[in-house]
Write a structure and sequence with these properties.
The complex is a heterodimer of chains A (about 90) and B (about 190). Chain A is mainly α and about 90 residues long. Helices cover about 75% and strands about 5% of the residues of chain A. Chain A has one domain. Classes of the chains: A mainly alpha (about 90), B alpha+beta (about 190).
Chain lengths: ~90, ~190
Amino acid sequence: MDIPYTLFLGLYFFGVLILMIYAAINLLHVMRLSNLSNQVVTVTFIFIAGLLFILFMSYRSLIKIDWQKRFNIGNTIQSSLEEFNPL
Amino acid sequence: MLFTNKLLPSTLPGEKVIMELRRHWFSFAKQAVVYSLLIISPLLAVYFINEFEISLWTHLYNGGLTEVIFRLMVSLYYLGVWIFFFHAWLDYHLDFWLVTNERVISLEQKGLFNRKVAELRLSRIQDVSSHVKGVWETFLHYGNIKIQTAGEEAKFLLYEIPNPYEISERLMRLVDDWHREHPQTPEA
């Protein structure tokens, strides 16, 4: 059975979406419930900058993959067993 | 309203904020160390793998499925750790207690969708006790303050507060001042 790599990309984007929603809710809490102080601005800025950096590095890492490729689950299991067989 | 810059949600007549109490920085530092280790340890692992020339990368970066899954998992891992790190700071930052000349207000963030706001009038305070327990607490002078009340919530807890002895003494003086200024008001 041939499974495209884009299936995993779809699952990845779903995970990223969940995390982004979580991050957005946290940012909303910062804006609604805290005072505008130097500490809040600094930490929020570092958080957003770090988030963008991780997303950028993820993009650079994932762009190297040929997402049009497909893999055959039977062949993959067979070759993995052959490669990692301690005997 | 965003960034209201108001500590008090609503003020009583003649009310002013005497103290704004937050948890000691060490309570967040403990979590920060854990999250920092979670961020740094994969990078250290990469360094040591390269240093000792372990042929792990030829198995992982073979252009196949393992490389795809590995890259996706690393990305999700770092995104998750970074966002939860921020959440830990937010949880620490949004816990604070306001002591005014009329009441003690507790604002605690207990989770993403769980925030508790409680208010205690100085007239209802019967007893204030402070408790410092633990090695770090002793050396860094932070602990818990328990306020015994006559209200619905019998005990009001302020936890991981810096200089708890001084704060509880100051709180009792505020209670005494309040009773001196309101001599006819009966205690509830």
